[in-house]
Design brief:
Layout lengths: L1 H29 L17 E7 L6 H9 L8 E8 L5 H11 L3 E6 L5 H11 L4 E6 L3 E2 L3 H7 L6 E11 L7 H21 L10 E5 L13 H11 L3 E13 L4 H22 L10 H13 L1 H16 L3 H25 L5 H25 L15
Parallel strand pairs: 1-2, 1-4, 2-3, 6-8
Antiparallel strand pairs: 4-7, 5-8, 6-7
Helix pairs in contact: 1-6, 1-9, 1-10, 7-8, 8-12, 10-11, 11-12
Length: 390
């Protein structure tokens, strides 16, 4: 009986700690702190290589490249390398047209699907810049974004800089509002980690910069390349920070099915990274172990903590009305996605219900990703997430 109670309350505490208490603690510790980073002047900015892995991005690739070229970064210190990963739409034709107009564009065409990490590894090897900016084809940078990110590298302790992701085209009929809330909260948490220790736990992947000297090739079949690159930088003793002044824009996903697929993939990659970087849980570098465990590892284990608390509740419910009520509440929460789905069918949208059901479904995706990891990951090719789909 006591053992079951301990299991139940520890499980509940860890869930609350990672999602509520840890962010609150960071907010307190970050109070009064400012980035205070010395920055390159425009004349000092180093040569930058922008790396873009593209697969069937005909809708966005031209705008992406033009917005990058038309920013404030010095033209003579900027090159764009695009790897088309066996695209089958009009992406290659658009790239060829842009290449004829702009000598700073370098193109690499892959005859068979390679996956984003493989494409980025190739582009990094071909790049000439001191700083690599790794960015997705559907992420549009503000005119100042590149200069804002790269300027911070004047501090020799900084190894990686993330941009500030701003999501657009939010709708009420799907999950885009919930996704924007979740991502905005993550932006704040990572910014606080950055301010306090310089130990940001992974960029968002849409647009970030890393010193080429610190870049390590992403292993074959790795799914979450941005977190791998971030952790290799921390492992080498350099700081990973976010820059809230480097603004980039992306349409937020609105389809629960699309986001489930994406989160499942990310989850499998998370467990790959946990196996690879588990020893950083004992890192002597201030903040690394604490943030890794509190922000990432516990969250990746939340589905298992939910199952432990549910199992403990079942064992305790037969002798306690209190735990019976808690068990029923847990079961109700787990059923909320089905209730939300039914209400959506009849055009009823409850924001509160949608937030809870979104949390539940994303943790189911985490669990599904774990089983994909256990089953073995055979390739890392990806399909771009469809944006603003119902």
């Amino acid at each position: 009986m006591i053992i079951l109670q301990v299991i139940f309350w520890i499980s509940i505490f860890l869930i609350l700690y990672s999602y509520v208490l840890f962010p609150a603690l960071l907010q307190v510790l970050a109070r009064g702190k400012s980035p205070g980073e010395e920055r390159f002047s425009p004349d000092e900015l180093p040569h930058v290589s922008v790396l873009i892995a593209a697969f069937n991005e005909q809708e966005t690739i031209e705008r992406k490249i033009e917005s990058t070229l038309n920013g404030t970064y010095p033209a003579d210190r900027l090159e764009i390398l695009v790897g088309s990963d066996a695209s089958t739409d009009g992406t290659n034709r658009i790239l060829e047209k842009l290449k004829q107009q702009e000598s700073r564009i370098r193109l690499f065409f892959f005859n068979r699907r390679t996956g984003k990490p493989g494409v980025i590894n190739r582009l990094a090897g071909e790049s000439r810049g001191e700083i690599l900016v790794i960015t997705d084809a559907n992420v549009i940078p503000d005119s100042q974004a590149l200069a804002a990110m790269v300027g911070i590298f004047k501090n020799p302790e900084v190894g990686l800089v993330d941009s500030r992701m701003i999501h657009t085209r939010v709708r009420k009929d799907g999950i885009s509002l919930q996704e924007r809330f979740y991502i905005s909260r993550e932006v704040k948490i990572k910014h606080h980690e950055s301010l306090i220790w310089g130990t940001m736990m992974g960029p968002f992947g849409g647009c970030y910069a890393v010193r080429k000297s610190l870049y390590r090739p992403v292993p074959d079949n790795f799914l979450v390349d941005d977190f791998f690159i971030n952790m290799t930088v921390l492992k080498q003793g350099f700081r990973c920070i976010s820059n809230m002044d480097a603004k980039v824009y992306e349409d937020v996903s609105n389809s629960l099915g699309e986001e489930f697929r994406r989160k499942k993939r990310i989850s499998a990659g998370n467990f790959q990274n946990l196996a690879r970087f588990g020893l950083l849980l004992f890192s002597p570098m201030p903040g690394v172990a604490f943030c890794f465990f509190s922000h990432k590892v516990i969250r990746w284990l939340v589905p298992f903590l939910v199952m432990l608390s549910l199992g403990a509740s079942i064992g305790l419910a037969k002798d306690s009305t209190f735990y019976l009520i808690l068990l029923l509440l847990q079961l109700l929460v787990l059923l909320l996605p089905l209730i939300d789905l039914f209400l959506r069918k009849i055009k009823i949208h409850s924001l509160t219900l949608r937030f809870i059901s979104h949390f539940v479904v994303m943790n189911i995706a985490l669990l599904a990703g774990f089983f994909r990891y256990i089953g073995g990951i055979q390739n890392n090719v990806w399909q771009p997430t469809k944006r603003n789909q119902v």
